[in-house]
Amino acid sequence: MIMEPAALDRMFHALSDRSRRGMVDRLGRGPASVMELARPFSMTLPTVMKHLTVLEASGLVHSEKNGRVRTYRLQQEALGHLDRWISERKASWNMSFDRLDHFLAEEEQTP
Amino acid sequence: MIMEPAALDRMFHALSDRSRRGMVDRLGRGPASVMELARPFSMTLPTVMKHLTVLEASGLVHSEKNGRVRTYRLQQEALGHLDRWISERKASWNMSFDRLDHFLAEEEQTP
Pfam family of this protein, just one (chains A, B) (predicted)? Predict the structure, then answer.
């Protein structure tokens, strides 16, 4: 599946904040409520909620409400998309650098 | 080398814009001047410069001025940091999901 540019924009933006990355790391250990996610941060609950809204809009996390408790879960596939974006670039950059090496090696052999 | 949270913030922020990702892709094929980088985009030169400043501040690209021409180059190591950040998370998430699978399998075996 190819990611829409807007979806990648949202995902990179969501990860551009260390508190949000901290929440992603916490969710990597299992689902958590807003209160559990807020605990390690010295932030007001509305600020935590704002970060979680950004994360959910990016597709990196998903939430569900059961009674009065909203539980957040990581969407691992989303990180897979980012991983693919980076891997594709790494592969093509290495190729262009390989081509450059090859070209330089040929240049050297030319008398 | 461990990346400072602020450096990761800047790198994710730099990639949260599709025009900047397009410039990174262009530089993946080799160094380029501001004019070359601006060509595929329907943007004013000051806007292009603003994007390049964000990219350079993030460490993803580096520029050098020779005479009147400023040339931009990709800093491949920077992408390596992002790649490592994602790989570490993928590894630890898979581990916690493996633990969950193991736990569920044990549960099933309990009569």
Answer: HTH_20
